[in-house]
Specification:
This is PR-1-like protein. This protein has helices spanning about 15-30, 40-50, 95-100, 115-120; strands at about 5-10, 35, 75-85, 125-135, 150-155. It has about 180 residues and is an alpha+beta fold.
Length: about 180
């Protein structure tokens, strides 16, 4: 009998708190108000986590020239993070997954964005996340480091990374964010 199939992980209070703390610690260090957890947004993130775990390395490409593809935004911003291992994960490293975004350099040129700017986006108030973990559904024996995968999907509302705005000076909400 082979390994258990990949699945969406149920996030308990401890996991939610770890993810939220990792977001809010960096926001606090940059003078940005904390985010709150939103169960409705988290439920939306579950859909993309479940979809992504069907793809090699949990990276849904949907014909996008092999580049990881983001999910149906439905009015949310979205960040994706992955971790891989040659052996099954004993636990999910929630905070270190968020740290992948938080360790990116913060762009200072207006109109430049990345994952951390969504985390820091001043007008974003809520976050909800989902995790899928398990064996790679399409393993490549020549790449043993990718036999086990984790994807973290975080959706944000109101979304950030709007053209013409900067994470720390964003003050105007678009019509659909009000």
């Amino acid at each position: 009998m082979g390994p258990a199939p990949a699945k969406v992980v149920t996030l308990d209070t401890s996991a939610v708190n770890a993810i939220l703390k990792a977001h809010n610690d960096i926001r606090k260090s940059h003078g940005v108000p904390p985010l709150v957890w939103d169960k409705k947004i988290a439920k939306h993130a579950v859909g993309w986590a479940a979809h992504s775990m069907k793809f090699t390395n949990f990276q849904a490409t949907d014909g996008d020239n092999g580049n990881p593809h983001h999910g149906d935004h439905a009015g949310y911003g979205q960040n994706l993070a992955w971790k891989y291992s040659s052996s099954p994960f004993k636990s999910i490293p929630f905070a270190s997954l968020v740290a992948l975004w938080n360790s990116e350099p913060i762009p200072t040129t207006p109109g430049t964005y990345n994952h951390v700017t969504q985390v820091l986006w001043k007008t974003t108030k809520s976050v909800g996340c989902a995790v899928a973990a398990g064996p790679n559904p399409h393993p490549d024996p020549s790449q043993p480091a990718y036999l086990n995968d984790i994807i973290l999907v975080c959706d944000y509302y109101p979304p950030g990374n709007y053209y013409g705005q900067q994470w720390n000076t964003a003050t105007k909400l678009t019509k659909d964010q009000r």
